[in-house]
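Practice record 12: protein with flavin-adenine dinucleotide.
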Amino acid sequence: MAVINLPSAALLGALADRLGPRGLTRDPVEMAPWLTDWRGRYHGRAAALVSPASTDEVRAVVSLCAAQGVAIVPQGGNTSMVGGATPGADGDAILLSLRRMDRIRSVSPDDDILVAEAGAILAHVHEAAAAAGRRFPLTLGAKGSATVGGLVSTNAGGTQVLRFGPMRALVAGLEAVLPDGSLYQGLSALRKDNRGYDLKQLLIGAEGTLGVVTAASLRLFPAVGARAVAWCGIATPGRALALLRFLEARIGQAVESLELVPRVALDLVLAHVPGTRPPLAAPAAWNVLVEAADADLEGALGAALEAGLVDDAALAASEAQAAAFWRLRDSISEAERHAGPALKHDISVPVAAMPAFVEEAAAALEARHPGARVIAFGHLGDGNVHFNVQPPPGPGAAAWLEQRGEAVSGFVYDLVTAQGGSISAEHGIGQMKVAALARTAPAPHLEAQRRIKRALDPAGIMNPGKLLPLT
Ligand SMILES: Cc1cc2nc3c(=O)[nH]c(=O)nc-3n(C[C@H](O)[C@H](O)[C@H](O)COP(=O)(O)OP(=O)(O)OC[C@H]3O[C@@H](n4cnc5c(N)ncnc54)[C@H](O)[C@@H]3O)c2cc1C
């Protein structure tokens, strides 16, 4: 059984000496923004916030903490949707921010590789790739805050997974500090390397429980010549999948995104996000946002309209309009936050099963919990939607969430599991889903993961209480 210790005054002093005044703070005001998660659901405490400026400094922090059995919670942009980067309430942990390590170390168009430090923000990675005439395709609503280390550690997905896959498909190599302070140097740009277990893939999606990612080699792709973005009104989620296959038959892999947006989600955005306006003349029951690169999306959509798959469509006439369409999609989480607390479920089922799941699971849930409202939106083409449940409106909403939240989420996860799906498609487990994972994952799967954790982090200092249900 791992024993976690409170950091001693001597340890805090040694960390302060090693990191200097910019590298450590215990000031409650400076620490406060980083002790609550993005959704405002989890509030933690920490003995100190440390912000190393180099991989050597990360190694020093981890070595000093490992020697005394002190817990470390790695943090990047703090945009986790599952409380993954928020320390526990006991205040024993050191919060380790990677945000000062934000350099783009190199860009090699010939290798199609960009090497970024863990604290580099995704939007800056996009800019650095574009400046070299290339492209890093993964993108998501939090791109202005989410960091390379966080994206790696959650195996983030986003809106271009349809074509490029999640981080697992986009990371060529990693540099990481392991829980004993040793360095895993795996940043090489090799396209082929079969020297045994792939430690890089173990660290991707590990949510900071197996070490601290300090840098990543990311795969680049040719820059897009012309990007076409369209907003379509459709009758049912089934039409969305039919539209995807129809478009693929005409313009193939050029289709990079297909995002499902129900009317209720669009209405929330229009009500709460300043500067947004309706994309179509008349509201549709369901909408899809489609993006294609270097292809005749207009012609393909015209054929889809003729075939009756699409009821109405607006093709962005400029980059600004394309950005406005994407803003409608990317602002759904923010709009939901304005509308009040809700239960969030980031789930996947096989792609072919998703359209029926969206409608049938929502109907079943709303029948069982009268007054509750399901908002299911997102990456339908990947078989992944954010299946969120708003409580019945009114003053009893908070009490409803408190009393029924667990049962409602359990109901959703049982439906997902019955379809052979996953209770976490892209946000990870964090602290929010540890109990749900314990309940739904096969026992051998959990036990194998626990053994890996014990082998690499026997003292259990890395991000305790996250990801793995311990026995
Ligand atoms: C508006 C919005 C939209 C989003 N859309 C998507 C989406 O479409 N797809 C998607 O996948 N996610 C999405 N997310 C979730 C979130 O942005 C991702 O999980 C992102 O990868 C987190 O990056 P971060 O730097 O903020 O990590 P943090 O929130 O700081 O940390 C996330 C996890 O990674 C660990 N971690 C962070 N840095 C390191 C490191 N250097 N080494 C080891 N562990 C580390 C933390 O301990 C924690 O467990 C969205 C979030 C928001 C707020």
